[in-house]
Design brief:
The complex is a heterodimer of chains A (203) and B (507). With 203 residues, chain A is an alpha+beta fold. Chain A folds into two domains: 57 residues, no CATH class; 112 residues, Ubiquitin-like (UB roll) (Roll). In chain A, 21% of the residues lie in helices and 11% in strands. Chain A contains five helices and five strands. Chain A has a five-stranded mixed beta sheet. Chain A is globular. In chain A, 35% of the residues are buried. Chain B is an alpha/beta fold and 507 residues long. Helix content of chain B is 28%, strand content 21%. Chain B contains 15 helices and 20 strands. In chain B, helix 2 crosses helix 4, helix 2 packs across helix 12 and helix 5 crosses helix 6. Classes of the chains: A alpha+beta (203), B alpha/beta (507). Chains A and B meet through helix 1, helix 2 and helix 5 of A and helix 2, helix 4, helix 9, helix 10 and helix 12 of B.
Chain lengths: 203, 507
């Protein structure tokens, strides 16, 4: 099929354009600012060890300049304090990104989903630093039964969830969900972050 | 397309200066990403972005652009010497956890391709907007909403005791502009009325009712602590025009007020607030339940209440003290049928509420920066926002909106003064994505294709010619350190400098 002509693209711009652009960039650009090949959790005080069961590779070839490593004085560890799991006690957790890609990690009991997501450079924000004061680390638990195994969210968490975009019955804040044996194999979805097409924009 | 000033539409005066209203249908005459006729740009093509305003919307956009286009050179202009906008001057001092996003902003600012230029207002009396245009590929307007909405009621501007909530918030948070507000809390008759029911209104109520010993641990300014320690305010009434389901405040702020020690909440009459909340959407249900539950006991030493369906009509004084507010006249309102309570009309019935202090908390508006309109950037005077289509600045025409090349907007100046930090973050991420996608996709930006933009390196010549002293991130580090040291001496996290002179003396 020939590519659509510009005029036809713009005819229905408000329902198509921004969404299309959004996805397009996600295809072009790496999700992370660090070199893609180092998609490895870094454990404080421990040797580095790859736990990714699937390594992300760019889907398109990219100019090398795009891989320029981002300079940062605040260490990347600042939001990724993960403890290395003891051999034989690894718990599995799977993240599904908004593009539908799945990443499974082996983590230790007690790590929270925000730290895990950030340590692996998933597109997950914790604007308040994981103190349950914003809704930017919203995740959706894939399975109702798994959701029921978690402790009930407290008032503070519920107050923040009330403000989350795309809230579902099994939504939680990533910073408040800690890994434990009972939820080994947990699967969570990262909600589509875009609010481009909210009705309020067209009033 | 040449520079924006030479844009054929910029020359047309048809829309210039007139009160425009933004539409949302975008007729795009520019090249678009994916357009087969357009060559896309390489990711390493030099890109210069100017961001006006250093609040959360500007910083989150910078963060997004940096992570998608690390080679982008970003210069952030800020009118005050100190960064962070409303995170520093708006977020309540007893919400330190909300300010953690500053850590992220600090990381953004230390990126080698990022320059912070504080103490540099953009406008005719300072650095002209037109001096930025030739030196950047793109300009992001993220300077927020600086103007206070007014009620325009009799007595509002003449009687003492009436303050804007914005000024009050600025006063206790150390915004230099409002340092000398000096609200008369000591001479009050014990009652304060807050007009408006957003989170700022509840912040004002909470600061008035919280014990000073609690506030002493926060970064609230010392002069505000001093005044609050002498405050006689014991009752706060937060009044809204519409019903409880239309109130804009969120549950966290309500719950905090309900949990304040020695503060009681006067129950809302069951005729006004839904009692069976089971059919309401989750957030509304939880909010109504929290209000219905109220506080364990009432009245207590200090108290607060929510009043609904009341629209102020006049601020009045007593004959014994004609210059001082003594009471506010409210007209009772009733919901208009078929609007789901969104609209109300006056019923003609009035009541007077006696209070010597009133805070107007009915929202903010943005204003155009001088020189912006002349540069072809359309501004919606009525809504107080830059005309835009999802963050791309666009001129409204009868046929639809036409994108202004290279100009983007985000935050409150884009969508109006609503939303929490998470909504600002998402809005900013959208803006960052739009900028990067448009750039890589090859759409038109400021100036001619292939122009080399010098950014701050060129602007600083004009800057020093005007006699401005720029504050860079290393200077902010010094101010930050000095403020923390001042705070440490008195057991606080930080004691802010109240004036720009004090800040500049450190630099």
């Amino acid at each position: 099929m020939p590519p659509p002509r510009a005029s036809s693209i713009f005819r229905n711009l408000r329902s198509q354009c921004s969404n299309r652009l959004f996805h397009r960039a996600d295809n072009i650009l790496p999700q992370c600012s660090r070199p893609i090949t180092t998609r490895t959790p870094i454990y404080s005080g421990a040797h580095n060890r790859a736990f990714t069961t699937r390594t992300l590779r760019p889907r398109l070839s990219l100019p090398s300049s795009i891989y320029i490593k981002q300079f940062s004085t605040t260490s990347y560890l600042s939001h990724g304090h993960l403890t290395p799991p003891k051999a034989g006690e690894e718990l599995k957790v799977t993240f599904v990104t908004k593009e539908g890609n799945e990443f499974t990690f082996e983590v230790a009991e007690g790590d929270n989903l925000l730290d895990i997501g950030q340590a692996h450079d998933l597109e997950m924000e914790g604007a308040c630093g994981g103190s349950c004061a914003c809704s930017t680390c919203h995740v959706i638990i894939d399975d109702q039964e798994m959701y029921n195994l978690l402790e009930e969210p407290d008032d503070d968490e519920n107050d923040m969830l009330d403000l989350a975009f795309g809230l579902t019955e099994t939504s939680r804040l990533g910073c408040q969900v800690k890994m434990k044996k009972e939820i080994d194999g947990l699967k969570v979805k990262l909600p589509a972050m875009t609010r481009n097409l909210q009705a309020s924009d067209f009033k | 397309m040449k520079s924006i000033l030479k844009h054929p539409l910029a020359r047309s005066t048809a829309w210039r200066g007139q009160r425009t209203s933004c539409r949302t249908r975008l007729i795009n005459t520019l090249h678009q990403p994916g357009d087969p006729e357009v060559a896309s740009r390489r990711a390493d093509a030099p890109f210069r972005l100017a961001i006006i305003g250093s609040g959360p919307s500007g910083f989150y956009t910078a963060y997004r652009v940096q992570s998608k286009l690390p080679t982008a050179r970003i210069d952030m202009y800020e009118a005050l010497p100190v960064p962070f906008g409303l995170v520093r001057f708006g977020v309540a001092p007893d919400h330190p956890e909300v300010k953690f996003c500053i850590n992220k902003f600090d990381e953004v600012a230390r990126h080698p391709n990022f320059t912070y230029i504080g103490n540099t207002p953009i406008g005719s009396e300072s650095l002209p907007f037109s001096s930025l245009l030739p030196n950047y590929n793109a300009i992001l307007l993220s300077y927020g909403a600086s103007k206070d909405k007014t009620l325009n009621l009799p007595g509002e501007s003449t009687l003492s005791g009436i303050h804007s909530a914005r000024a009050f918030v600025g006063w206790y948070n150390g915004l230099p502009e409002h340092k000398d507000l000096n609200p008369n809390l000591e001479g009050s008759d014990g009652k304060a009325v807050v007009i408006g029911q957003g989170n700022v209104a509840l912040d004002v109520a909470r600061i008035l009712l919280t014990g000073v010993d609690e506030l002493r641990k926060t970064d609230i300014t010392e002069y505000a602590l001093e005044a609050l320690s002498k405050s006689k305010v014991k009752e706060v009434e937060v009044v809204g025009r519409r019903g409880p389901l239309q109130a804009a405040f969120t549950i966290k702020e309500v719950r905090e007020l309900m949990n304040l020690p020695s503060v009681g909440f006067e129950p809302v009459p069951p005729s006004i607030i839904p009692q069976d909340t089971s059919t309401l959407p989750r957030a509304k249900k939880r909010l109504m339940d929290t209000i219905n539950k109220g506080t364990k006991s009432y009245p207590l030493e200090k108290n607060w209440k929510l009043s609904f369906f009341s629209s102020p009509t006049a601020f009045l004084s007593s004959s014994s003290n004609p210059d001082q507010l003594s009471h506010i006249r409210f007209e009772k309102t009733a919901p208009v049928e078929g609007t789901n309570g969104e609209k109300v009309v006056g019923t003609g019935k009035h009541k007077d509420v006696y209070a010597s202090l009133a805070f107007r908390s009915i929202g903010y508006k943005s204003e155009p920066i001088s020189g912006m309109i002349e540069a072809g950037i359309p501004f919606d005077e009525k809504k107080g926002v830059v005309c835009n289509t999802l963050g791309r600045v666009a001129k409204p025409t009868p046929e639809g909106d036409i994108q202004v090349p290279g100009i983007y907007t985000t935050g409150w100046v884009r969508r109006g003064p609503t939303g929490i930090i998470a909504s600002t973050m998402m809005d900013a991420f959208d803006a960052g994505d739009n900028i990067v996608n448009d750039w890589l996709g090859g759409v038109d930006f400021l100036g001619k294709e292939g122009d080399v933009k010098m950014g701050w390196e060129a602007v600083k010549r004009e800057h020093s010619r005007i006699g401005l002293k720029a504050v860079h991130w290393s200077d902010w580090d010094k101010i930050d350190k000095a403020e923390k040291e001042r705070g440490m001496k008195i057991g606080k996290e930080r004691e802010k400098f109240g004036t720009e002179e004090e800040m500049m003396a450190i630099v």
